[in-house]
Amino acid sequence: MAEDTYKEPAPYRRGEANPFDSMMIRFDKAAEMYKLDEGLYNYLKHPVKTVIVSIPVQMDNGKLEVFEGYRVIHDNILGPSKGGIRYAPDVDLDEVKALASWMTWKCSIANLPFGGAKGGVKCDPSKLSMTELEKITRRYTSNMLEIFGPDTDIPAPDMNTNEQVMAWIMDTYSMHRRKTITGVVTGKPIIIGGSRGRREATGRGVMIATLAALQKKGIDVTKTTTVIQGFGNVGSVSAQLMREKGSKVIAISDVSGGYYDKNGIDIDMAIEYVKKNKNLGGGDFGTKVSNEELLELECDILIPAAKEDQISAENAERIKAKIIVEGANGPTMAEADEILRSKGIMVIPDILANSGGVIVSYFEWVQNRLGYFWEEDDVNQRLNRMMTEAFENVYNTAIQYQTTLRLGAYIYAIDKVSKVLKLRGIYG
Ligand code: NAD
Predict the structure, then answer these.
(1) What is the pTM of this model?
(2) How far is the CA of 258 from the centre of ligand 1 (A)?
């Protein structure tokens, strides 16, 4: 289906190394540093609820096909669970479980009143008609009526699901409840309850986190250079906003390759070009560089905003940026962490850096419950406040434990979730 311009964080696309394993390596390290009680560790390793449904669909050719759908609620300690739904042929329960726990840490770091969840349907959207896609979505939703709900579990878009799919989920759920309930899902079109500023939220959050990091390092943003890998939703908005703040964006790239211009790339022109041509290929934005070369360019700020596993033990040594801001999920492999740390490179981890999207999803849910919609400025100001606060919390935790921002982020999340869990106690 058409590429989405409005999606919830897609936690990872399968790469060579499993980014979830990379995440677990960090989680285990953080749990050890925090001295997390063994019982709580085991509690947090397992999801509270796992649901598997079968989705029978009459296909356009008249044949009946049955798809498998999942929803995993990792926890609802901090509040109703939140997390996207992905449609892909290789979705399986293990992956969904992994992604659900990832959402727990992300929501906790962003100080959202949400637990973590994830859903998926094993199907190939590129081979489905819109009618088939709608039928799958509606039947999946009706099978999840006892799970979804604005007070219980709130889905959002992820890989291969978009605003339209969210609109179908909202409609199906509302039909069964006999009233319109917009807050059951986020990532909706603005016209039916989506939030202003959601499309730009992740890139904006990346910019806010970058400014916070520069301030800690005592670097003036107007004297910096920025390199960005990936020129989709996250990369292009980050590029625009970093330039707006006075940084010189000297290199950009996408799946077609990259460009370098030491005088700064015309970002607006590049955005216009991609709108017309789908990607940067064939454009004239400077000297051509490969995606591998781009990562190793001399610069102050490097924003990987494309895909996972881009920075490995192999290339980490050659990275020259002072700050890496992980717009993408899982762009740095666990094996590279120590190398980057020893080089004094500050890495703002994905679970903090790209949380702008889920923060504005939270705003969407709040606005739906209020029945009152905020101006874009209001959304942006609140996002700024929450991102900056999340950055401070993670930064202070990292200092307290004398560790990296990445482990600081995990420790902060573990601390918060386990404290709330202890206060609530174990029922039963
Ligand atoms: P997108 O599909 O809009 O853009 C992806 C970009 O990466 C495109 O420019 C594409 O050409 C490029 N790309 C793909 N493969 C590449 C490769 N091998 N080398 C270089 N570039 C490549 O996706 P997006 O929404 O911008 O998401 C990018 C990353 O950010 C993903 O990891 C996603 O999970 C993460 N993320 C997105 C959001 C969000 O709100 N969109 C939120 C959090 C995290």
Answers:
(1) 0.94
(2) 14
